[in-house]
Structure formats: structure tokens, C-alpha cells
Amino acid sequence: MNAAVCQVASVLAATAVMLGAASRGRSAVAAGVDPTVLAAEARRVETIRQASATAVAIFAGAEGGGAGVLVSPDGYALTNFHVVQPAGVAMTCGLADGRLYDAVLVGLDPTGDVALVKLLGRDDFPFATLADSDAVEVGDWCFAAGNPFLLATDLVPSISAGIVSGTHRYQFPAGTILEYTDCIQTDAAINPGNSGGGLFDAAGRLIGVNGRASFEKRGRVNVGAGYAISANQLRNFLGCLRAGLLVDHATLGATVTSAVDGRVVVSDILDTSDAWRRGLRYDDEIVSLAGRPVRTVNAFKNILGTLPAGWQVPLVYRRDGRREEVLVRLAGVHAPAELARIVAGGSDGPQAEPAPPPDGRPPPAGRPPQKPPSRPEPEPALPDAVRGLYEARPGFANYHFNVIERDRVAKTLVTAPGAGQRGAWVFTGTLAAGGEFRIELSDTSATIDLPTGTSTLDATGELDASPEPPGSGGMLAALVLWRRLATEGPAAVGRTIYRGTAPRDPRTIDPTGGDLVDVLETAAAGVEARFAVDAQGGIVGIDLWTAADEDPCEIRFTGRRDDDPTMPLRMDVHRGPEPFGTFVVERVERTGGDR
Amino acid sequence: MIKVVAACIVALLPWLAAARADEPAPQPVIAGAARKVVKLYGAGGLRGLEAYQSGIIVSATGQILTVASTVLDSDQLDCVLDDGRRYEARLVGIDPRRELAVLQIEAEDLPWFALQEVPAAVPPGTRVVALSNMFGVAAGNERVTAQRGVVAAVVPLEARRGAAEAPFRGAVYVLDCTTNNPGSPGGALVDARGRLLGMLGKELRSTAAGIWLNYALPAAELSAGSQAILTGDVATAAAAGITPFDPRFLGAILVPDLLDRTPPFVESVDPGSAAARAELAADDLVIAVGGRSVTTRAGVEQALGGLAEGDPVKLTVIRRGMLVELDLGPRPRGLRP
Predict the structure, then answer these.
(1) Quick check: bond before B111 cis, omega within 30?
(2) Given CB 3.0 to 4.6 Å as the disulfide criterion, which of A66, A255, B213, B286 pairs with A196?
(3) Hey, what domains does chain A have and what are their CATH numbers?
(4) Would you say the pTM of this structure is higher than 0.90?
(5) ipTM score of the complex?
(6) Alpha carbon distances (Å) from B221 to A309, B119, B156, B206, B224
(7) Which pLDDT score is estimated for A226?
(8) Contact residues on chain A for B81, CB-CB shorter than 8 A
């Protein structure tokens, strides 16, 4: 016994001597140490110092807490859903500078176990940069910054170092823990309290957000396997989270299984799904989804798990040796009420399954419902710090932030050069298929002249009455709403919300998010439409539905006019996969001109 | 102890820096070595008794080396390679002392670890990478888990599983790396150049401290073990120091052990016991335990002792000239006589 104590003391003494030497100056230690080792050590110390500055300690009262990581100078920080859930909408956060900050909940992704919060009081927060997590390799150095066992009473995060142990891991939903798709596995120690904190690469870039670990016989302590939600998945969802949404994950409307020969084939499909409308059927082999190859069922689930509901992505499938490439629109996994119930923690008792299709087939397996720990019932009054920064609304984690983002995007539309003029818009040009066209849009009506005839829409009434021109699915209605949005703002277009971001061109999804554009969603005059808008207020695309579960009219805008930068050079119009026409715009006139 | 801790501190210093100039980058080394590690799926599926483990390819023509465990007690043993190819594996033989097993799959041109060229035992402080399908997280063509660590000590194994002492008493690598996890047994321990240093061992606890051991069987033992299996020169279980397990703890009373080689006839069966539920009957002659033939009463106790607590007890008996297979369920905790 004494001997053991003595030995421990000796070790501590030896360590103290080493640390003392280090603190007195590197020269004492440097003797005999390769200078490249010392230089590498100094680099690492600096990298960790910088990453530590972005680490957030989150306190959720008596229910514990966890970690987070700042990703913008104005205080947006990523963390886990299961970390903020006990805290409700307001929480206290600490940074390594030793200061406490009030924070407010912004967005929630309960399925992916992600939450976005905003720290208040500064616009110059240190923040981490999201790396391309698909470039991460097994064997890469990495480190986690977090608040394991809530040790950070001085608010300085704990650092644990390790390597990337695995990439593109799929972790089933287990018990109260949420599904982790396409995640990064690390042997850097991830313990309770590391949840929500960043996993950084050797250069200090954020490659993921830690949130889960494999625990075994030793209890809830690290045993060498922790899992981080990948930066690329987080980037896909970040726009939706900033939108204050209760974000849902995506389903193809089909389940897949491994065939005996190893191919991944469709084992079940909903005939109401977009994939079905695009031609996908039982036993078709899934070749790729969203540009990533599908060779295992896990790979399929991994890819799907990184995509928000509502995105359109390319799907390649094979039937009888024939390869088909289509664009499919992904539906949400949960009914909105179901997500709300999960967030409220009211998921006791049996969970409602999605309604089975009429022919009695089982629904495609979405993610089994989660059962997070329940939270205390009555919502306490909002603290002063977040008053005015929170608004409850069904479907949202915090509607206040949706208004902010919606108005930001609408403003780029309205204030873009040439926009905001109330007069009529007149487009003239040629059709790629031959012939000329003329489109005139005004407050009261819309007219299109085509070689096949002229169509007119009364812009003052219901827009779904007759989707003009015939066969387009509602091209004129889409253009009318765009003009109204750009000239009068979202308030003039019925209920308009910010939907987050989506790829500019779904056919070429950039995993590093280089080409994400903002999406506004509006429901007005009997139709529902989504507008994709780039950072300059230029329109990128419009999808307009006159009826749910039918193919929308899709307009894709390309090119920019030198004289009127928000106006396109070209409009491609589709009804679902069916091309309606390609409009080469030669001239745009805005009459009237009074703003 | 100081030596071990000091060795760890010294060993960690290079890890703190970038890879040493004379060492290759870790990513391709790990990728190359991981191709020689396989995922094995067999019997089990209960908590604490997983149905999967790891193995290493030791010949281009499909010889697999792994740890001998209950996972192998299955007539359907699947082996999944790094590239996702799936094969049925056949058990070639077992070295009960080292608790190693050789399997065979019908494949060719595989990447493999050459057991003939294993490096001599490495000293404490050696940096290592452990490659295994821990927690079964890698499926199909997904790469096994890589963990970095350090050889903390090279010491004789004094460990147990269930009630039984681990039969191997030679030196093993104790690792500063949490490898004692479901699915890890049979995985590869490699050095910074990807050379095989050892095999991750079964889930065992120290007899001294009761803590779970992170250890690996050194490559020289792997070499000797596979050689012994392939030449049929395996040490007997008795020589390995297994504690005999009396079948009366299962409710089976054998005839008194009066002779040197008392044949294992059943004298009686306790009502309500596992043996009774399995319908073991008086006058049955036990001829195999877990598929391994036994000829004496002592042999039965020895074979049962070779099973760990919780392992399934399967008996083959002769009853009125007919072979009968009986499943007595999991082996209970052994009570020491």
C-alpha cells in the first residue's frame, strides 16, 4: 500500500519536474530534442489554443450540460440536440476567455442530434471553420474540445487527442440515442460532456461535432470509440438550422436491402413518392444517390442521413442492365407533429407509425422514433437576455430567426439592382426548340405568347385554377409570384418562410457546400412555391405546385444579364422530368420604373 | 510501475509531434494493414457473448488466424474481407493453450501477414495501431476500426474469463489502447510500418486487479500457434492448466470416478436442472462436449472447464446405440470444489 502511494508520488514528482522545466523555458527541455519535434509541438499547442477559443461550455441547469462549437463571428454555435433539450430556449454558455454568455436556441435537428444556438453580446466571437469531412482519412490526427464530466468550471475546454478510427460510419438509433449517419469515428476520448463539442483536424479545422460513443461493460466512460457528426452533414443542415426550423431528415420513400450478389436493391417503395413517379420500382438496383456510390445498405442510409428533407438529388438506378439517371425530391421522415412530440419529450408510450399505404404494404422504414429523456413540463418565463429573440410557432424551434433570415433574403431580392420597380416585366427571346416567345408580367395579369398560342393568367385571383401555359404545370403563376416577391417583398406574397439552403444545381451537389443558395417558401393564392435565390438576389430556380403529390412546374434560371444582373439569360422549364421548353431571353424590359 | 509510466511518457512524446521523418505517413500504412484484417460472424448474440470478432489473413490462399472463442462454435461461420467479399469459413484447428484458431476460406490472391517474418518482441514504448472490428461498427466493405496506442508493458498473462484462468501464461503486450471491446479479439496489432506485432486477445480480466486487460498475443506466439495447429501438434487442454468443471453444477451426476479412465456414463440427473431440461438421462454415455470428443469422466470435466461462464454447453451422448445431441444452455459460474 505504502509502496504504491510512494510510486504514484514519485511519478507525480517526475511529471512536475518535467512540467516545471517546460514552463521555465523550452531550452531546458530542448537540449537533445529534435528541433522539428519542438516546432511540431509548438504548432500543436497553438492549434489547440485557437480551437479552444471556439469551444463552448453549455450549462443546462440541474440536468447537466455539454459542449458546443462556435461557427460564426456573430455567435452561432453548433451542439447536440440532446445537450440543449433539457435547457429549453435559453441557456448560459461559457467560453475559454472565462466569460459567461447568454444564448438562445435557434434551430433543432432532433433526428440528426444537432442543435444551433446563438451566443449573445458580441459580433467578434472566435469561430471554427468547417472542413471538407469527406477528405478525412483513417489515421489522420484529430482532437476533441469539450466539457467531459463537466470539468470545465473555469470554462476552458478539455482536450483529448487521437486519430480518426473510421469514416462514413453508420450508427443505428439505440435506446434514447439518436441515429448517427456518415459519422467520423475517433479514438480521441469522447465522454459524457463532450457531446456537442468539436472534433478538429491537425490544422484546427472543424471536421465534426462529437455526440456519441460506444459504451460497454465499463459504464458510461470512453472505451476507444467515439462518433462525430460530419462537417459536411452539418453544412447541409446549417441553413435549415439558421432558419429556426424543426428540421426533418429525408427519405426516398423506398427501403433497400442487400441482394445475394451484394447489389443494393429496392425492397419496398411508396407509390406516392417522387422516386416512384421518377420510375423507381421494386428490385431496381440503387447505383448512386446524391452523386455518391451506393454499394451497401449502410452507404445508402449514410448518404440519406446527410440530406435535409425537401432537397432534390440525383439518383442512378439500374434495371435489366439499363442505367437510369433521374432527379428525385426527398420527403420528410416524420410528420411535423411527430417531430414536435419528440422535441417536447412527450414520446412516452407507443410511437405513431407513418400511415401504411392503401395497398397494405408496410411503410418504408424511416428512422425509428427517438425517445429522448423527458424534460420538465411548464416552460419557465424567458430570461431577460433572450426576450424578443424567441417566438414559438408549430414547425419551428424558434420562429424569430426565420423572420430574420426570410427578411434578409427578401431584401437581397428587393434591393438588387433593377429590382423593386413596380412596372410590368417583359421578356422576349427565342425558344431553343424554335420560334419566338414574349412574356409580360404585371400586377394584374400575366401573358405568354408562344408559337403554339397565347395564354393569360389573372394575377389577382387564385393561381391554381388553370396552370398556364398548358403542360407547364404553372409557369406563369411561378413568374407572377417571383415578380411580386421581388417588387413588394414577402409580406405581399401570403405566408412566406425561409426554408434554409439547397444546392444551386442538384445535378452537381458540392459536398463542401460551395454552391448552396437560399430558399424561400411561400403559400399563396392556392399554390405553393419555392424560390432559390443566390447571395446577390439573383433568381436561381422556382418550383411551383398547384396540387400536392403532383409534379411541380420547375423553372431553372441560368446566366446573368450585364444590364440587369438579377435577370437571367435562360429559363429551362420542366414539369417533373418532362421538358416544357428552354427560353433564351434576349431582352428584359421593366416598364413604369417607379419604385 | 514507474518504468511502465515513464516508458509511456517517453513513448508519447513522438506522438505529440508529427510522424518521425523516417516513418511513413500513417494513413496508407493503416489502409494497407486493414486489408489483411477480416470480420468474422458466428455463434453468440447474447449480451457479453457477441456473435462477431476479428481475424487476420495469414496466407494468400485464405488461411485466417483468429482467437479460439465461442464465436467459432457455429456450423455457419462467415468471413467478410476488407473489400466486402463474403466467404464461408471452415475451422481447421485450435491451439487451446494459446487460444488461437486457424480457419480456411476458399479465396486466392489475398493480401496477408507473413507469420514467417514476424519481428522479434518489441519493447515497451513501441507505438502501435490496433485494427479490429470492435463493436461490429464496420459492415460489408467498411474498413475496420483503427486505434493508436503504445505497448505499455511486456508481461506474463495472468488473467481469467468467467471462473476459468486463461490458459496462456506466456508474455503478452499490455497496451495503452482500449482494445478490450466486443469484436476486437482476433484483430491485428501493427507497428508504424504496418508490420504485424501481435493479435488482440479475448476479453479477459486481470486475476490480480479484476480490471479488463488491453493486451495482444505477440507475433512469435501467433507463428508458433498456427504452426502447431497446421501440424496437429497442439498441446492438450490438460497441460494448459484448465480448471476442471464438475458437470453436477449442470445437474448431471456421472458414475463415480473410480478408475484411471472411467467412461463418462450418466448415473443420474437432478430434477429441474439444466441437464433435466435438456433431457439428459441415466445410462447416457457422453462422447463429446462442444463437438470435441471425450472418452473419460476427467475428459468431460476438462472440456467443460475449457468453456467460459456463459458459453453454451453442448453434449453428444450415445443412448441405446443412437447418437443424441443435447443443449444444456449456458455454462453456469463454476463453483470451486
Answers:
(1) no
(2) A66
(3) 133-232 (2.40.10.10), 252-332 (2.30.42.10), 405-590 (2.50.20)
(4) no
(5) 0.81
(6) 54, 12, 13, 20, 5
(7) 94
(8) none
